[in-house]
Design goal:
The complex is a heterodimer of chains A (309) and B (243).
Chain A lengths: L2 H35 L6 H19 L7 H24 L8 H21 L14 E3 H4 L8 E3 H23 L1 H11 L1 H6 L4 H23 L10 H15 L4 H21 L5 H15 L3 H11 L2
Antiparallel strand pairs in A: 1-2
Helix pairs in contact in A: 1-6, 1-7, 1-9, 1-10, 1-11, 2-3, 2-4, 2-9, 2-10, 3-4, 3-9, 6-7, 6-9, 7-9, 10-11, 10-12, 11-12
Chain B lengths: L10 E10 L2 E11 L4 E6 L5 H8 L7 E6 L2 E2 L13 E4 L11 H7 L4 H5 L1 H11 L1 H5 L10 H13 L5 E5 L7 H16 L3 E6 L2 H7 L2 E6 L2 E7 H5 L2 H7 L3
Parallel strand pairs in B: 3-8, 3-9, 6-7, 7-8
Antiparallel strand pairs in B: 1-2, 1-4, 4-5, 9-10
Classes of the chains: A mainly alpha (309), B alpha/beta (243).
Chain lengths: 309, 243
């Protein structure tokens, strides 16, 4: 392989990992909601869109940096998610319906309402937050003068990725080290047994929906400096989250991280070697391959190693 | 709130009717469990024994009747508060959090109140009762053998510092030598002052350790008596002991 080709490959892998870290954050929110509620939240991308608009408004009015706006958007999205769970999803969960999936259909409706509200308020214009570091990048040749190949690392992409890593580490700490985090995992594994342990299952569900929404709201803030924003931007991220959740194994947090990274790299490779427009196709190729060959996702592979079955 | 005086029973189930949807499964069921007693509910599959325990724990709600625990009407208590009051249910089929470690399972047994404050201390006591669990504390609960899993389930219950401990089929699916061990543990728990309500299909060993027992058939109490009397009863012998 000649240096130019290696350069393209490495650059593609770097972009893919950076994208994958952000995808993992989207998938994590969806998968913890899936774990505890047993439903796929198909309004997930639209909640991210709300997070992006919050960051956008704060940037346009107050020139608040999108990374700082996480501190506003995440709590607001937590509230929005908790309210959606308590007043919309929960009442529907309790109804014996012909369609057992009616809560999932409800989330589709919630997504539509959010997207249309955004259209009413912000019009369907494409917007960006022109942060002054938008095109800043680090170059390999700056550090290593004699490098035979040239690689670049975009400043906003790297910072967004680092934030995603920090948030993911925080989530991991919360879920594995605190009583509340353990209660959430217990509720996801067996809600009746969790109730017998004294876990307030109803409250855990509300909290988890809020937490998942806050995570994807934070992801929205991280995407704002590197992506464009319009009211229907959420749909593609709902699909992304859905594919990651399947890829990782429903409800598995570790699986979602791996799933996000794999999907990011795969999409990046597709964009480079097949064509920009094919990236979404790549996403569904992964989706179908996983469903056919590893229906339980990454989590089922881990379980097989751990339990020998 | 009524005072819990030593004279009142630990648990008083009075005339409850319970339904699954439209199907009635418990009919006017009444029984009591006195302090520091071992009381057993025995009967065939489908007699309503597990349903009774689930109703006491608030997973199911009675349509009629009243349950009083330690002087308190349970209709007013949210189910997740029961552990804090010392009412602990060790469920059928163990229901461990199989992907979590043994230690995490134990910690989840002591989430609130006094049990939370004394968690480290209780964990040590539980480990000395079941030394095998100390060795396996970091292992995922789902990788343990059936007997070890039952020990985790009991240990997790003990972590809540129970005043009344309800066991649902603790010996189910275990090898005979382990069955005896489980019954010894149940007896020992009572001897240390905890009241026990035991649901079992292993009638002979259950009646041997029970102070009193109720025989349930199709959602009703058919007979009651001391463990020893029921062991000698011709109907019990014929129906449950295969004699």
């Amino acid at each position: 392989m000649n240096p130019a080709k290696i350069e393209v490959l490495l650059q593609t892998l770097i972009s893919g990992l950076l994208l994958g870290g952000l995808y993992a954050l989207i998938g994590l929110g969806m998968t913890i909601i899936m774990g505890v509620m047993k439903i796929i939240n198909l309004a997930h991308g639209e909640l991210m869109m709300v997070g992006m608009y919050i960051a956008y408004v704060l940037f346009a009015w107050l020139h608040l940096d999108p990374y700082l706006s996480i501190l506003v958007a995440a709590p607001l999205l937590f509230l929005l998610g908790a309210i959606i769970q308590k007043y919309l999803v929960n009442p529907v969960l309790k109804v014996d319906a012909i369609l057992p999936e009616n809560q999932v259909i409800l989330t589709v409706g919630i997504g539509m309402v959010l997207a249309n509200l955004a259209t009413m308020i912000f019009k369907s214009d494409y917007r960006t937050a022109p942060v002054d570091y938008a095109t800043k990048a680090w170059y390999l040749s700056d550090i290593w003068k004699g490098s035979p190949i040239e690689l670049s690392l975009s400043y906003p992409w790297s910072v967004s990725f680092l934030f995603a890593v920090v948030i993911t580490a925080g989530l991991w700490f919360f879920l594995s080290r605190t009583d509340m985090g353990k209660s959430i995992r217990a509720t996801a594994q067996d809600k009746d047994a969790a109730l017998l342990m004294g876990v307030n299952v109803e409250r855990m569900r509300m909290f988890t929906f809020g937490l998942g929404s806050a995570l994807v709201g934070a992801a929205g803030c991280l995407f704002l400096p590197i992506y464009y924003l319009y009211p229907d931007v959420g749909g593609q991220f709902t699909l992304t989250g859905f594919v990651i959740t399947i890829l990782g194994g429903l409800g598995s947090t570790f699986g979602a991280i791996i799933g996000g990274l794999v999907l990011g790299v795969f999409e990046s490779l597709t964009a480079t070697y097949v064509g920009m427009g094919w990236a979404p196709v790549g996403r569904f190729v992964v989706f179908v391959l996983v469903l056919v060959f590893v229906p339980g996702g990454v989590a089922s592979l881990l379980r097989r190693r751990r339990f020998g079955k | 709130m009524a005072d819990a005086t030593p004279g009142t029973p630990m648990l008083d189930v009075s005339g409850i009717d319970v339904f699954y949807g439209d199907v009635q499964v418990l009919w006017d069921l009444s029984f009591t469990v006195g302090r520091a007693e071992i009381v057993a509910l025995i009967g065939a599959n489908g007699a309503g024994k597990s349903t009774t325990l689930k109703t006491i724990s608030g997973i199911l709600r009675p349509r009629r009747g009243r349950i009083t625990y330690d002087g308190r009407a349970l209709g007013d208590v949210e189910p997740h508060r029961l552990v804090e009051l010392g009412l602990v249910h060790v469920p059928e089929a163990r229901r461990l959090f199989v992907e979590m470690s043994v230690e995490e399972n134990l910690e989840l047994g002591a989430l609130r109140g006094e049990a939370r404050r004394r968690r480290a201390e209780t964990k040590e006591q539980v480990f000395s009762l079941f030394p095998r669990l100390r060795e396996r504390r970091r292992q995922a609960a789902g990788t343990l053998s059936g007997g070890e899993q039952q020990m985790v389930a009991i240990a997790r219950g003990l972590m809540g510092l129970p005043k009344l401990m309800m066991f649902d089929e603790p010996s189910l699916g275990l090898a005979p030598i382990l069955v005896q061990e489980i019954f010894n543990v149940v007896k020992r728990i009572r001897d240390e002052g905890t009241t026990v309500l035991l649901v079992e299909q292993n009638v002979r060993q259950t009646l041997a350790i029970a102070d009193r027992a109720y025989v349930m058939e199709t959602g009703r109490v058919e007979m009651q008596g001391s463990g020893r009397d029921l062991l000698g009863d011709p109907h019990v012998k014929a129906a449950y002991l295969g004699l």
